[in-house]
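Fig. S4 source data, part A: sequence.
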Amino acid sequence: MSARLPPSFDHVMRFESVGLRYGQRPEVLEDIRLDLKPGSFHFLTGASGAGKSSLLRLMYLGQRPTRGLITLFGQDVATLPRSKLPALRRRIGVVFQDFHLLDHMSAVDNVALPLRVAGVSESEIKKHVPELLSWVGLADHLNAKPPVLSGGQKQRVAIARAVIARPDLLLADEPTGNVDDTLATRLLYLFEELNKLGTTVVIATHNEGLIKSFAHSRLHLERGRLVDPPPFKEG
């Protein structure tokens, strides 16, 4: 439902010599260089503390870099006026580790929020939102509010909200961390279907089983630097 990238775009996002530090501390990300092609799919891996969440924060414009250049949809993020940022953010779907759901809204209304912001008709919302929530196993919880949902159910609401508007870029921070392996695999298929429609996908995960099952490229962080991913452990 979002505008697709024109064919002339050779990248969705580009990092050139990007660094990030918080306050006067040492850099948590150092000399990051990456180029996300339209329609590509990447797993973001690395040990806890390697910088995965910080890198995702830069990608969804939740943080500006300390140094370096970030280009998103062909625009230099550093020089972009703050007034222009909301329009760019609406082209990005994000699944946060702590969900970021609105507790006073039902599951349906949480998922419908990006569509309403985009001006989608209520008839379209009533057609597509319940359908997606049913697909992720929440058909019996359409009107439930987040405080009464389990962690896994909240995760699925958050995923549905992130993908409902078919964003140009989808970023997910451990999106399968609160669900069993069967549902995790089903959710990865959902991300793959979205990817086939043209969305660029980046998923941060520790789940080696999923990474082995889905043959996509890896962005691997070690101590704040992108390096070649290590081989999987045997067994």
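Fig. S4 source data, part B ends here. Confidence is low (pLDDT under 50) at residues 1-8.
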